Amino acid sequence: MNSCTGRRPRIMASSSSLPQNTITDILSRLPVKSLTRFKSVSKNWADLTSNPAFIAAHIRRSSPDPYLLIRRYHSQSGWDYGIWLITDPTLNFGTQLLRTPLEQSLPRFPKIVGSVDGLVCLDISPCYASDFVMWNPGTKQFKRLPLPLISSTRDNPIWMVFHGFGFDSFNNDYKLVRIVSFRGNDASPFLRVEVYSWREGVWKEIEERFELALLCGGQDGVVVDGSLNWSAIGLQRFSDRKVVISFDMGREVFKTVPLPPVTRYGNVKVVSYMGLLAVAVYPLVFAASGNNMNRFEFWVLSDCEDGTKRWTNLVVVENFSKSLVPVGTWRDRELVFKYMGARDRENQSSIFLFDPVDQRTRRLAIDCVDFCFEGFSYVESLVPVN
């Protein structure tokens, strides 16, 4: 008994007196920066935070509240570029300019291929998507990947390259897919496909191909429920519409998903929405008379009670501006739009969020009017690059 106050002295519990489940639960709620510091404080904590089960639990805590990772550069000059991390675009957010790996020695500013579970895949090659870096901005780890197997030669030059980066939950692996298109003897290109495995650390070429479609240029694969997806122009029996080419990362096979007929008359942006494959259809800037739509439509590939899938139209906005272009989704439930037109007044926002459910629009205080812009959801994690 304390003779002055009459109170018992407080006894602070050490971490060793707490149940292991309690310690794990507490640590799984902390930011990566704190957990990285703790690795040097306690060997037990270092071992715990390197455990795959703990890393997965930490990701589950972080996933519902992702940051916005943006890459932008000045459209005219090509300069004033950078990759920014924005903690919450809708509030008084914090903005952090990230230091990109190998930035000073690169021939051009890196392109983001994809962002999954805290791993960001960068394309650092000058052309043909032939050099990649795996990067974890939270832990500041990065790894330059082995060069791909498929390359361009004088006799067989590469025409176009498409890629995507995602998580294969079936094999607990992160995969980078590279689709290389060569000009064939006829009108259709010849394709070769290779996959890099994070778990194995090597590239392999696969025999799997897809037919009856031509991939549309200037797009990266969109991750939806274990698959990577690209929009394409349908051929032969699909010639009356556009399609999605979907690559199952677990089975490493392609399938063709026909899109709604309305996609013939507009631009198509493939996105993930609430874990489902979705497409935003919006007006073409230039189109032949009578062949252009003047509205925005948002379609989702929904599951039916009989086990089949069906396209459902969630949103139609008539007289839609050609100056608004969808660039992706944030938190997997709000569409991100970029305003491409002339700015009406100083400091006008050029990035918008649109909720397809209540059709609410919010402006973001990010000035990208004069910039090329790409946006990705990002969560901090302890996933190693090796």
TrEMBL record:
PROSITE patterns: FBOX (PS50181). CDD domains: F-box_AtFBW1-like. Pfam families: F-box, FBA_3. Gene3D superfamilies: 1.20.1280.50. SUPFAM superfamilies: F-box domain. It comes from the Eukaryota. InterPro entries: F-box-assoc_dom_typ3, F-box-assoc_interact_dom, F-box-like_dom_sf, F-box_dom, SCF_F-box_component. Residues 12-62 form the F-box domain. This is F-box domain-containing protein.
